[in-house]
Amino acid sequence: MIALRQEIFELHLRHTFRLARGASDWRRNLGVELEHEGIVGLGEAAPIARYDQDAESAAAAVARMVPRLGDPRAFATATDAVAVQGQPAARAAVDMALRDLAGKRLGAPLHELMGIDPHATPVTSFTIGMDDPDTVVRKVREAGDYEVLKVKVGSEEDRAVLEAVRDTTDRPLRVDANEGWSLDDALSRLEWLEKMGVELVEQPLPADQIEQTRELRRRSPLPLFADESVHDATDIPGLAEAFDGINIKLMKCGGIGEALRMIAVARAHGMKIMLGCMIESSLAITAAALLSPLVDHADLDGHLLVTDDPFVGATVEAGRLVLPEGPGLGVRRRISPSYSR
Ligand code: MG
Known about the structure:
Helix content is 31%, strand content 23%. The chain is α/β, with parallel strands linked by helices. The two termini are 14 Å apart.
């Protein structure tokens, strides 16, 4: 019998987060505790509004999944049969909590159970949200420790913003267009970005424009990475000619188990892999950081963008991800919970 406790918590952002699709100052995520034989595993869902998910729908999905779980020790496949359609963040929270539980039961860190070298973590990029050029320059100065910056674009001021960033730093830049361009304007933007020393571009065209992205990639001077176009492993074969790489997010794909399948399928297609995140606490970021030694690029800064992270887990030192010690995920609470059953 697995006992479930859930709590919705707010994460407040240091800076208003602007994307091509809108702006916000805070997020509501879901904390999940699964208790089995006196051991508690922790999980987190960061629901994605673009796909009509919120904390309440994620909580309802978790409440449907957990009573139908089999033996929690069989975490590799435990969520396959009980996942709720359209709620991958909820599934990610359950998958994460089951793995944390298993590690704690055995007294071993998850990276050890999974054979992952904790010292092989990559640097993480740090995201600079859309803003006016002056504010962007201030944010770049604040991002002193990070070796790679990811700049969100898609506004009228893109060129002014990028030029202002380039005048401030010579660090490598990645650009995320968040589906904001069209095939007609994308090529000239890519050529200009290449001159600006940008190393890759994420999701230039709308998610369903795969044919157009394939055409763009044939002429693109920069590698293109899929984000909104890729959800789980089944999407990857159809994207192999349109993109050079994929951005895996636990909240899009449904957790560590599916992320491992995606890594295998992307490698089989010769694609590069980035690990990304939503606005998440240190709990979900630690679950993603655990997989970072298996990929090429990390963009795991969601916990660095908030002021009231309730958990302590993976940190960033000199720009590099550092996994916590301790069994399971190794995450502990910063603030005591107010859970309801
Ligand atoms: Mg993205």
